[in-house]
Amino acid sequence: MGLNIILRYLLQRLMQIIPVLLGISCITFGLMHLTPGDPAEIMLRADGIKPTLEATRAARHALGLDGPIHMQFVHWLYRVFHLDLGKSYRSGLPVWEELMSRFPATVLLSGSSLLTAILIALPLGIGSALYPGSLLDRLGRACALFSVSMPGYWLGLLLIYYGAVKLKWFPMMGMEGWSSVILPACTLGFGMAGIYIRLIRTSLLEVLGKLYIKAARAKGLREWQVISGHALRNALLPSLTLLGIHTGGLLGGSVIVESIFSWPGIGRYAVEAIFAKDYTVIQGYVLIMAVAVVLINVAVDLLHQLLNPRIRLR
Amino acid sequence: MNRLHMFKSNGAKAGGIIVLLFVCIGIFAPWLAPSDPLQIHMEHKLSMPSWEYPLGTDHLGRCVLSRLVYGTRTSLYYSLMVLAAVFSISIPVGLLAGYVGGIVDHLIMRVIDILLAFPSLILSLAVTAVLGPSMKNLLISFAVVWWAGYARVIRSMVLQIKESDYIMAAKAGGATHLQIILRHILLNAARPILVLASIEIGTIMLSIAGLSFLGLGAQPPTPEWGVMLNDSRPYIQTEPRLLLYPGLAIMLSVLGFNLLGEGLRKPGQKEEL
């Protein structure tokens, strides 16, 4: 597979997402116009300036809020392209920088939760597919069921109670030291693990019935070679797609888990912004997250194409 | 599919019983609750279980059991409302896209693609933020955001049904479009849609309680499980039992709906889904 084909595919996909990105920006822009109150006035009040008629007009001009709505949209889009998402009503700092400064914490949490999910799901999923009906299979099924039924916010509180209050092994909240990431990562990871257990189990069972597995066995390969080299490689592809979707969602910061553990990430910041009616922050947050999800999906598709020899790039 | 056949698996049976139990608790809440869920008794605050308060009282001296019982009502009621709102958008849209096809289908699908690009909870949060936190606004924000995914599923159901022979026969028999849509397509899609609903209601309950927990859904003093869980947070070190009950209630009810949904899906899967 030549680099040329990959580049062409990538370009094609990027062309496809342009209307989606445009739609996303329309919705995000429109959201601001549904907000009660005049943004210019709110900003002036936040700065401690009395919103006289003149001051409001000047502020509106500065925010690009005068003129017809389509021109406002164009202005706004122009600024977004230059990573100018406006300033936070509360702190007066640029929204882009505020969000980016909280991003590393969220990435750390996302990565560790995905790792936790995989560490739970991989052995259980593979085990239950290899030995259907066994004790391991039942354990996997029970684990999957609880994983999708357990409210993450409750699991988080229980983990805080047992891990931090009773045993005192972990800090209750905040981000201090490596041990502080364990409880939130377990909360998020367990919640995701269930879907992976089921997905790995069904796709591995399906693959094991395929002819090329029979061929590999007939060739005289050892069982572990058949499983790891032939079966797993194909069976894990659907999980990869799901992993992409989850990564997108996680980067938005798990709003609830970050709030429970006072994790200094992007999700908790968004919740604070909602309560403070900091609309520019909310707008910037929604926009960045949607764009990130779209781009991650493209990346996952590309990865999917590269790893699966049977999908031919058009 | 035999109607009784779907309750063959033990999981579905257990799920059905749990769901029925919660539905009964919800319906008969006023008779089951030992006291008023809103009545504040500061002199009894944080008291241990007793004859008067079987599960003790919360930080305002309200009866925990009564709040749990009424919370069942709140949770089920709003979950069904969200489900109804979501389906009242997604069914017509899905039918329209699948049946009419062409440019209409193309346009609808683009809108759906755009909506699905947003992580669903985040867009709901944003809409709630704009409208202000309340249960009514939570309902609106879920409906506005979540119809897209269901519309896509219903569209693909319609596409599948549209190709079947009996639709062709109905067309040949001179049935009008409306007749075909209502009598043939919608009726045949009804069961898979119901299965979809029973699988999804667990997720809806979790999300409602989750946003209420954050303070963006039901507002205190409404007896609601998420609100109760949030109320219990300051007492995690001193009164951990307060966070046990509402969490257990959420988990059990969601577990029941999930078991039921899976049980309903399995036998039908071969034929329809």
Topology:
The complex is a heterodimer of chains A (314) and B (273).
Chain A: H1 3-34, H2 39-46, H3 53-62, H4 69-81, H5 95-130, H6 135-149, H7 152-166, H8 182-208, H9 211-218, H10 223-235, H11 237-251, H12 255-260, H13 266-275, H14 279-307
Helix pairs in contact in A: 1-14, 2-3, 5-6, 5-8, 5-11, 6-8, 7-8, 8-10, 8-11, 9-10, 11-14, 13-14
Chain B: H1 10-27, H2 29-32, H3 64-100, H4 102-117, H5 120-131, H6 135-162, H7 165-172, H8 177-214, H9 225-232, H10 241-269
InterPro entries (chain A): BPD_transp_1_N, MetI-like, MetI-like_sf, Opp2B
Subcellular location (chain A): Cell membrane
Pfam families (chain A): BPD_transp_1 (PF00528), BPD_transp_1_N (PF19300)
CATH topology type of the domain at 96-311 in chain A: MetI-like fold
Number of helices of chain A: 14
Q: From the 3D coordinates, which CATH architecture of the domain at 96-311 in chain A would you assign?
A: Orthogonal Bundle
Q: Mean pLDDT score of chain B, rounded?
A: 83
Low-pLDDT ranges of chain B:
268-273
Largest sheet of chain A: none
Gap between N and C termini of chain A: 11 Å
Categorize the overall geometry of chain A. Answer: flat
Number of helices of chain B: 10
Radius of gyration of chain A: 24 Å
Biggest protein-protein interface? A-B, 44 and 44 residues
- Total domains of chain B, how many? 1
Transmembrane segments (chain B): 12-33, 76-99, 111-132, 138-154, 193-218, 242-260
Domain ABC transmembrane type-1 (chain B): 76-261
InterPro entries (chain B): ABC_transport_permease, BP-dependent_transpt_permease, MetI-like, MetI-like_sf, OppC_N
Main location (chain B): membrane
